[in-house]
Amino acid sequence: MNELFIQFGTGKFLRGFVGYYAHKIQQSSLDKSRNLHLQGVAVQTQGTHRAKLIRDQPAYQILTKGRKNGVVVDEVQEVQPYSNAFSTDEDWSAILETGADSSLKWIVSNSTEAGMSLDLRDSRFQETKAPVSFPAKLACVLRYKFINNQSSVWIFPTELVDYNADVLKDLVLKQSLQWGWGKLDGWEEWILDGVVWVNTVVDRMVVDLGNSSGGLDVQVEPYSSWILSPSGSHPRSSAIPRSIQKLTAIETVKEVDSILPWSQRKIRILNASHTLLVELWIKQGKSPKYVREM
Fold first, then answer.
1. In sequence order, which residues have a C-beta less than 8 Å from that of residue 16 and are 6 or more positions away?
2. Alpha helices by DSSP H, 91-226
3. pLDDT for 129-187, tens place per residue?
4. Is 162 in a helix, a strand, or coil?
5. What is this structure's pTM?
6. For residue range 150-159, what is the model confidence (pLDDT) as tens digits?
7. Quick one: which of 198, 120, 92, 119 has its CA closest to 154?
8. Cα–Cα distance between 228 and 146 in angstroms, integer?
């Protein structure tokens, strides 16, 4: 069984976070159930360099360094989460064709908080040219999925926005109305019921090592957390793709009823306190190796 996911973004965080989880799913499938083959397609939304790197050398290293449960961790894993990569500047038609693939089961993104908005330059729909904003790009991919194969697809935005999937869904619908897609029979109903919008909170520190190695290698901390909260009614277990079942079985992935407490913990407690610590480090002229030293 082949299952496919599209990843909008090729930056260090996605390579060290989503790439890591995709690798875990691939390894689990290899060890326990050889009837699942997960492939990822990475989409670079600005420029072409990393898309070409992934196509030419799809394997890269994730270096895990730090402490876990009081034990020093220093590990290297070679991963290959993506079978292909495209650039929206040069490969838009191929990206749309990927959206129409019947094996496409989920889409993940990290367009940053600034990417969670529409752009006035996208007022007119162009079939052969990628729109400017990320929500508009996603709307186009979903339209191809809708026209060619209306099987369900899961959306996992990782942008640091409260209720990020709900925000993204509203933006996709708003852009669709601007383009007159409300006339497509069943389109809005499919967006609301055929697409599973999953609010998320993600947490992991990732450092890009590409500058030193010239490639895609990243360094990560041992800690990782992916909190998931599907918007609306939860799909029946039989309707959940195998790769997503394997994702949610990983110990650092957690399904919750409400995303808000986890979002508040991440932004108010973790991010705010670490920002304050950095300011204290600078003022005191200290260079601690671990957060706990402060």
1. 62, 204, 206, 218, 219, 220
2. 92-99, 134-148, 164-178, 187-193, 210-213
3. 999 999 999 999 999 999 998 788 999 999 999 999 999 999 999 999 999 998 778 99
4. coil
5. 0.91
6. 788 999 999 9
7. 198
8. 24
